[in-house]
Amino acid sequence: MSSKIYQIGFDFSYALADIAKQKSNICSIELFDNTPELFDQFEYEWNTEESNQIPNLILIMSKLLGVSSEYYSTIAHIVSPIKTKLVDIGGKSYNIFTEVRMIKSALNLRKSKLTRFSTGDILSVDSPVFLPQNYPPLFKIEEAPTTFFCSELLYDEIIANKLQGWKFKACPIKDDSWFKF
Fold this sequence. Notes:
By secondary structure, the chain is mostly beta strands. It has helices spanning 69-79, 152-160; strands spanning 5-10, 16-22, 42-47, 57-60, 64-68, 83-89, 92-98, 102-103, 113-116, 122-127, 138-141, 144-151, 166-171. The strands form four sheets. Strands 8-11-12-1-13 form a five-stranded mixed beta sheet. A four-stranded antiparallel beta sheet has the order 4-5-7-6. The longest helix has 11 residues, at 69-79. The chain is globular, with a radius of gyration of 17 Å.
């Protein structure tokens, strides 16, 4: 069972990988990790307005998560079940994770901070609290399908190898039980 879960965000103290050019009439709004066939329809460059420092770990348009091909081998043994597709960003190769597993019923809905529509459906997960279970090294959840999470195993490997570019927010894991025995 995973002992810690982390929400992944981008560290904006690094240059931002972004779409520089469309090669076809495909709109970038259609670009997600489960549409790898569209990755080649765009050219990617670094947005260096805020920083010139190029990261090892990237997040493109808050939709695509990747790692520099140069450093991919340091975490490959952990994330290997997840397929990747190579993308060139400013002359450097990155492995973009494709088809990241979507986990259902992972959140403790009573203890998570949620914003809901008037219908009761979930608009956003502001502060996720997870149920105890085994989680894959990298995943998304159905309640927040555009947010990436990782297990302690992947987090520890990233920290041990000093990979940079993502920020991590620890997420609590709490049982759904009303009573603790």
